[in-house]
Amino acid sequence: MVIRALAPSDSPLLAALHAAALPPGEAWGEDAFARLVALPGAVGVLAAEGAVPVGFVLARRAADEAEILAFAVLPERRRRGIGRALLDACLEVLAGQGVGRVFLEVAADNAGARALYGAAGFVSAGLRRDYYGAGRDALLLVRALSPPCEG
Ligand SMILES: CC(C)(COP(=O)(O)OP(=O)(O)OC[C@H]1O[C@@H](n2cnc3c(N)ncnc32)[C@H](O)[C@@H]1OP(=O)(O)O)[C@@H](O)C(=O)NCCC(=O)NCCS
C-alpha cells in the first residue's frame, strides 16, 4: 500500500471512493469534494494498492486545530489496516503543521469507525443530537497531537 498527499485533481476520485464506501444517498459529490479540497488548510491523504485507489482521509486545519471531514475505505478492502494507516498519516501531517487538537463527528451507531477512532486515541468531547437526521446522533470526538520530534 502507498499513501500519498491529496491533490485538487483528486476530487472525482474522492467522490467515487466516497460513493462506493457509504450507503446510497450519504455520499458527497464531485463538486463538494472539489470545494473541500480547495479550502485553505485542507489536508488529505490517499491510499492505493498497486494502481487501485482504496481509501482516503480529508481534514481541514484552522490555526492549531483541525477537523476530519471525510474518511472512507472501499468495503472490499476493509479490516486490513488501511483506515488506521490513513488516519495515522493524516494526523502526522497535521502535527507537522502545528495542529494540537483534532476533532471529528462520528455517527453514534457507526461501531466500526468508533472502534477505530478509540484505538487511535480519540475520546468523547460531546454529543450532537439528530446530527445525521432525526434519531441519528453524532458523537464529537477529539484527540490531542504532540509536536513531531525534531532531529
Ligand atoms: C471506518 C473505515 C474507514 C475503517 O477502514 P478500515 O480500513 O476497515 O479500518 P482498519 O482495517 O484500519 O481498522 C482498524 C481497527 O478499527 C476497528 N474497526 C474497523 N472497522 C471495524 C468494524 N466494522 N467493526 C469493528 N471494529 C472495526 C478494529 O479494531 C480494527 O482493527 P482489527 O481489524 O485488527 O480488529 C471504513 O469502515 C469505512 O470506510 N466505513 C464507511 C465510512 C465511514 O464510516 N467513515 C467514518 C466516518 S466518521
Question: What's a concise summary of this model?
Answer:
This protein is α+β, with helices and mostly antiparallel strands and 151 residues long.
Structure explained in plain terms:
The protein has 151 residues and is of the alpha+beta class. It has one domain: 3-Layer(aba) Sandwich (Aminopeptidase). Helices cover 29% and strands 34% of the residues. The protein has four helices and seven strands, in the order E-H-H-E-E-E-H-E-H-E-E. The protein has helices at residues 11-21, 30-38, 82-96, 111-119, and strands at residues 2-5, 42-49, 52-62, 65-73, 101-107, 123-128, 138-144. The protein has a seven-stranded mixed β-sheet with strand order 1-2-3-4-5-7-6, sandwiched between helices. A hairpin with a 2-residue loop joins strand 3 (52-62) and strand 4. Helix 1 (11-21) crosses helix 2. Residues 21-22, 71-73, 78-84, 106, 110-113, 115-116, 119 line the site of coenzyme A.
How would you summarize the topology of this molecule?
Blueprint: E1 2-5, H1 11-21, H2 30-38, E2 42-49, E3 52-62, E4 65-73, H3 82-96, E5 101-107, H4 111-119, E6 123-128, E7 138-144
Helix pairs in contact: 1-2
The protein binds coenzyme A.
Coenzyme A (COA) is lined by residues 21-22, 71-73, 78-84, 106, 110-113, 115-116, 119.
Looking at CATH, which topology would you report? Aminopeptidase
Q: Which ligands does the model contain, each kind named once?
A: coenzyme A
Radius of gyration: 15 Å
Return the CATH architecture: 3-Layer(aba) Sandwich
The helix tally amounts to 4
Q: Provide the domain count.
A: 1
| Large-scale geometry | globular
The description of the largest β-sheet is: 7 strands, mixed
- CATH C-level class: Alpha Beta
Estimate the strand proportion.
Answer: 25-35%
Order of helices and strands: EHHEEEHEHEE
Structural class by SSE content: alpha+beta
Q: How much helix is in the residues?
A: 25-40%
Question: Count the strands?
Answer: 7
Uncertain segments of ≥5 residues (pLDDT<50)?
none
Strand order of the largest sheet: 1-2-3-4-5-7-6
Q: Tell me the name of the CATH homologous superfamily.
A: Gcn5-related N-acetyltransferase (GNAT)
State the distance separating the first and last CA atoms: 27 Å
